[in-house]
């Protein structure tokens, strides 16, 4: 039996009757309370469903009721998806739309509103796999050099802080959230250790190596930081001493990639891709790289073999003697 969902005033839906509008509201409340979906995902699901109901209302010439929704046919869904493709909606957005519609259909079924069998008959659109775009070794190292930003008017300790964060992303392959969640006690002083214990996705911990020059950059930042940095608190703080926002590092990267002539694909996360790609190109073992990145599946890490293959083919094209 479905868990009870708190009663909420139904959202206004001109394309649906009051009963279905109430179910939409209860579904969103359920996703927020029970599934713990992010506000952005909830907003996207609500927008997708509203667009679908608007389409059905015009398609059928009447407001959509729970009974009518349960009687959906595959042709109705395909017509909606075709309309979205005509609007040049990307494949990933179409996949999200279908996932949201299926979630709402399952919710209606749990609530005894009938089974929307047509939704399970529709195949998700194929999305071409895009390879991550790593940053070259030389510019990746320059991003972790505070002297590259000597012309900026920001306080020196902030420049040193940002360089230390960049160095961790590239030197240890951390996600930006993992780097910014590090406590001061988590990072050894130079010469007193060479590993970090990182908490990643799913609250899983893993051990990653850290270079001594990266530890020195962190130590330089700690020495220059004007704010108190207790051992149990975050090592990286903002201008006013609070937790450092990932957006600050993203903005720093935007400024630096302009100065270094890097493409828009050069993001903080691209430094993590660069870490993996450069290890692989130097003969790193794929399973070891999987462990270092904290990927739960080897297939997630194998995307980097595609990048390395591209590099090898380029070397081949340039170096092979063609008669």
Number of helical elements: 15
Summed over residues and divided by their number, the pLDDT gives a mean of 81
How much of the residues is beta strand, in percent?
A: under 5%
User: Major sheet: order of its strands?
Assistant: 1-2
Overview of this protein structure:
The chain has a two-stranded antiparallel sheet with strand order 1-2. A hairpin with a 5-residue loop joins strand 1 and strand 2. The protein contains 15 helices and two strands. It is mainly alpha-helical. It is elongated. Helix 2 packs across helix 5, helix 8 runs antiparallel to helix 10 and helix 12 crosses helix 15.
For the structure shown, list the relevant keywords.
323 residues; mainly alpha; two-stranded antiparallel sheet; 15 helices; 56% helix
Q: What does this entry show, briefly?
A:
The chain has 323 residues and is mainly alpha-helical.
What order do the helices and strands come in, and which of them pair?
Layout: H1 18-33, H2 39-60, H3 66-70, H4 74-86, H5 91-110, H6 117-120, H7 137-143, H8 156-172, H9 176-180, E1 195-199, E2 205-209, H10 212-224, H11 246-260, H12 268-281, H13 286-293, H14 298-301, H15 303-319
Antiparallel strand pairs: 1-2
Helix pairs in contact: 1-2, 2-5, 8-10, 8-12, 12-15
